[in-house]
């Protein structure tokens, strides 16, 4: 199979954090309108300029040749951009009126640049995409892009060590997750039962806890971060460290969690689809038979983070019709399967998951199920700063120097000062 690798979610967060003070552009192109149009049935023609980041930017030039063959009058010019330069390059292009026709856009960047994006045409149907992915394209009531590929977080655990600890199936509740982690430690020789997020991106990485506990992050006009549901969720988070079944000082360097998982030192973790390939690479031949994935345990629900990348067409596009035709083709279920086979990016369109290329991969099943209820972070220009403030308070919660109630009170105060954008 094509192993899934690190996609937009973590890299977007890192790049955006470095540029968090930039905020939404005030210089969106004057040409074009927010009002949605239609694509129609006419073939794509002319030149379409496309910007894409990372591995996607490298893979697209060959991949879009199929689109060009189906539309003989069109030429797609792809510019590959490093992730660490993408945010500032997009911002500069918007300010200077030099944007491409269409671009790959990290799901957490949508609000920052929404003023420069066209509205999605009325005949480009996104109802078949995962709801959380569609949610990431909405800024206010306006659809500013279409989901392209998706990412979410699920539970990974060592089935061989779980069996030694008396577990033959995945934990399905919060209490069971805590108990399984303790049993892996007490009965299967693990140093720690589970690894939980810490450091950069830890707040976003733990959102499944408050979301699964019925919490919301904002209500449209203000942040809601110090509610009882939020506090209870982070009391649960802190309990793993207080009980000694998670390590508050775990090594966060690259590859550390994979090594601890493969060695059995920490045989449970929560991460994205790229981790499948990483674990198989570190574990070597046959290791894929020793672990599995499962949806996150339920409190009121099982709700994980929805990330990935979207496709956006800029207001000052010189060939918007053909750019939207390209977006329509890239989000077709058949094309989505072909893209997965080439890159490992998980399809945003649910119908693509029925294809054998994905349906035959047992460790992907949990991701498909989790994505049905996954949620996107708020589409606000201040989200990155709020998430960074969340990382800072969770550091104190994890180390036991601040109670979850005080941490959420502090986070609420900081978020109130930032506003909802």
From TrEMBL:
InterPro entries attached to this UniProt entry: SBP
Example GO biological process: maltose transport
GO MF assignments: maltose binding
UniProt signal peptide: 1-20
GO CC terms, sorted: ATP-binding cassette (ABC) transporter complex, substrate-binding subunit-containing
Keywords, alphabetical: Signal, Transport
PROSITE patterns (alphabetical): PROKAR_LIPOPROTEIN
Pfam families, A to Z: SBP_bac_1
Similarity comment: Belongs to the bacterial solute-binding protein 1 family.
Cited PANTHER family: MALTOSE-BINDING PERIPLASMIC PROTEIN, MALTOSE_MALTODEXTRIN-BINDING PERIPLASMIC PROTEIN
Protein's UniProt name: Sugar ABC transporter substrate-binding protein
Organism, as annotated: Microbacterium dextranolyticum
